[in-house]
Amino acid sequence: MSIDHLEQLSEALADRLAAATFVVAIRTGRRGASGVLWRDDVVVASEQTLPEGVDFTVVRSGTEVPARLAGRDPGTNAAVLRLSQKLAATLPAPAPTPRPGSLALIIGADGSGAPTGRLGMVHATGPEWHSQAGGRIETLLRLDARLGADEGGPVLTLGGRLIGMSTAGPRRRALAIPAATIERVLEPLLTEGRIARGWLGVGLQSVQVPERFREAAGRDAGMMVVGLAPGAPAEQAGVLPGDIILEVDGRRTGRARGLATALAPERIGQPATLKLLRAGEVRLVSVTIGARPAGG
To answer: Which of 97, 135, 109 is nearest to 264 (CA)?
Structure first.
């Protein structure tokens, strides 16, 4: 009797899904969301799926457990919930970066907390990147899939190793936030409730450098200062409304995301050099990077 390899694969995937005791449903009061039981008393979820508030209910296989928000970080789109009682589960070992074209098992949970699954393909991978909210993501992992209530659940290799957490990126493209990124932000979110990031205290708008100043500026685009927070690092350094920031420590800034690397958490308290265009003249201004205020 011949072996049906497709049937074997199908059964293996169903078994993998049934054994995913580390996936939970999160009741948010609106659309459903999923989460990953990262520790026995800690659930990681997609930050953008959770409404304002601190009290939630986590459901696994019909068992309901109250949970309280410990911290959230829009930059990496990670939110962390603490459970009022432990739910035993073992998180899979982390996977190496998958190759484009490899298959991934995207797991979520239905309203009763039972696992749901969909099969997707790794559409593209890339190097470290920064989100629009300024978060550093270790690896770009784009998935060929559409997410619903399974957003925030785990993404596995077909071998059962953990790639990361699913989330919807710009234009609703499915992404996986790598397990390494979540591990990096987990403790600060549990202890501080947020990820501190560098801050200049400026409101910025992308602009084209006037053509007559481009030779002096050395480029054709920058970020115009349209607002200054009182007492913020930029104001203290002498930055003025209307200045066009061309570079930060030699790194070009044509979009707000371009500042993310210069304002990484490890840069707080360190000096930075801003290259500005002011009234047609290029100036260098030294500024000490501050910590973004909570809620800012």
So the answer is: 135
